[in-house]
TrEMBL record:
The name this protein goes by in its record: MARVEL domain-containing protein
Taxonomic lineage of the native organism: Eukaryota, Metazoa, Ecdysozoa, Arthropoda, Hexapoda
Keyword Ribonucleoprotein found: no
InterPro entries xrefs: Marvel (IPR008253), MARVEL-CKLF_proteins (IPR050578)
Membrane topology: Multi-pass membrane protein
Transmembrane segments: 12-32, 44-71, 77-98
């Protein structure tokens, strides 16, 4: 990614790290049952918003990284392809969460 413009690479890394940290945070919240233990009213809408924003950020990031290619461009193309794959994964997750929210399957029971 060093072949592209510095801000394009920095934006892509920012998106990847932010998405990783938020995904890790949501994984810990749900897998360790922190929500139930602390009686925090966290619902699936926050997770839906998070994955939708990450999908949008990855969409912007892969376009930016693919358009900032100069010279030998193997690293930027690889980063762009992985950005597309991540965007599709987060987009599918957003779609599934939206369907659960719409059908009411993700309601909070307290």
């Amino acid at each position: 990614m060093s072949l592209g413009t510095p801000w394009a690479s920095a934006w892509y890394v920012f998106v990847a790290v932010t998405a990783f940290i938020t995904t890790l945070m949501w994984s810990f919240v749900y897998l360790l049952s922190i929500r139930e233990a602390l009686k925090i009213p966290i619902n699936w809408v926050l997770s839906l918003i998070s994955t939708t924003v990450e999908t949008l950020f990855y969409f912007i990031a892969f376009i930016v990284i693919l358009t900032s290619v100069y010279g030998t461009y193997g690293r930027n193309v690889a980063a762009g392809v992985f950005g597309i794959i991540n965007m599709l994964a987060y987009g599918y997750s957003s779609y599934i969460l939206y369907q659960e929210h719409r059908t009411g399957a993700a309601t909070i029971t307290q």
